[in-house]
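<backbone_tokenisation>
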Amino acid sequence: MLRVLCVWFPNWSIQRLRSERPELKRSELVLFNGQSQRLLITAFGLKARRMGIRMGQTLAEAKALLPRAVFVPDDIEADRNALRQLALDSQRFSPLVGLEEGPSPESLLSDVTGCTHLWGDEEQFLHAVRDYWIGRGYDSRLALAGSLGAAWALARAINAVVVPEGDETAALSSLPVALLRLPTNTLQRLEALGLRTILDVLRLPRETLASRFGAILPQRLDQALGKCPEIFEFERLREPLSVVREWEVPVDDRLALAFLCREMIGTLLSIADHPGTGLQELEGELRTESAPVILAIRLVEPTRNGAHLAQLVELQLERQKWSGGIIAMRWTVVRLGRLPQVQHNWFGDHVETETSQHIVALIDRLSSRLGAKAVLRVESLPDAQPEHMVQLRSWTDAESAERDRFAMSPELSRGRPFRLLDIPQPIVVVSVVPDGPPICMVWQRQDYRVSRFWGPERIATGWWRTSDVQRDYYRVEWEDGSHVWIFRDRRGGGWFLHGFFE
């Protein structure tokens, strides 16, 4: 007898964002989508609903109703990929796990037939699954039934419910008819006739349902009651693309090894022949007579240029040392990427595009010769505390592909100095009133009179860190025309010089 488990993650897009960005856990999130002036609300939390935020509302109206909320563009593809990863993680309970159908799935579906006895019974199995997702920090609703449709509907109506075999009709009768996954026009017709529950539909003559409401209604009804089978696609771990070469006589000629690597990379490129797909991270293993040697090739951008990849491999071989000969070699594609799309100008030159490609190739070569940690880039972070707003990250880091995920607004960038002190230095400030704006200051035993100031700009952050940071920042102009950035520590009361505007 078929047994299906449905795990529903309400407001999945918001849950995914809070899981990936812990600093947003205490913020009220509102997601929007659209283009140009048609930016519409797509997801929000309970507080936003109480404040009058509605689906399909314009972004401007939502900001007027809830100005302190954090408004983030939604990312349907990221939501689906994250849910797909949860499906793979959920294979600890069943090998057959997939996503529900639809453009924005929020549920995992599992065929758990023959699996629940490993946890004792179905009730204990359901509690184990629920505790697992609670431990991961997710809000979930679960239902176990004899059909996909019943499990999907019950997960949205009753939390953590197990329907005994054959009791789907009794369990579904009192539920709203909307939980049958019907199209909007069918639901509107049912609502117009006063048919609000599944029991109301079951009381109608079966032979009249298709002619009155379309074939979808009896189909969904049979699927929910387990009379009609329903198939869903399972998520599978993809086998890595790999090429192996073995030989009996050990080889120690590096030129021969480089030629063989070039041939193997060409084979990998022919295997990964999906349009628009390139290789971004490779891992090589040279099996020697003593111990294996691991090579790692990470690129800033994916590529299908076999000559460029072969050059990076040769640079890696120059750095490696081993004893004895090589008896086998394996190259594996760790990460694929989408090739960058460039819009060319028929009547112009391509100097800028070619220059960018040359710079990327140079970074790849330097990272391969010197090591990934030796070639770094500056990355902006969405952090209110100035000393944590930038960090150094390897160009070939997997997360560096998302380097445009945060862009400092022009208003914020104009109010930040480009030169910050490593450690804010204490200063003495004289104000007209306590805790008021500065009129003069003493730094390194020299007096500086304040001509003008701008501020304060107050920041308060750090609840997820070891200590809170509460500061009032001022941009100050000295009499000699210099502009500095100072702040008053609202917790300790002291003043500090933090940066210079140049």
Residues 410-501 form one domain. The radius of gyration is 30 Å.
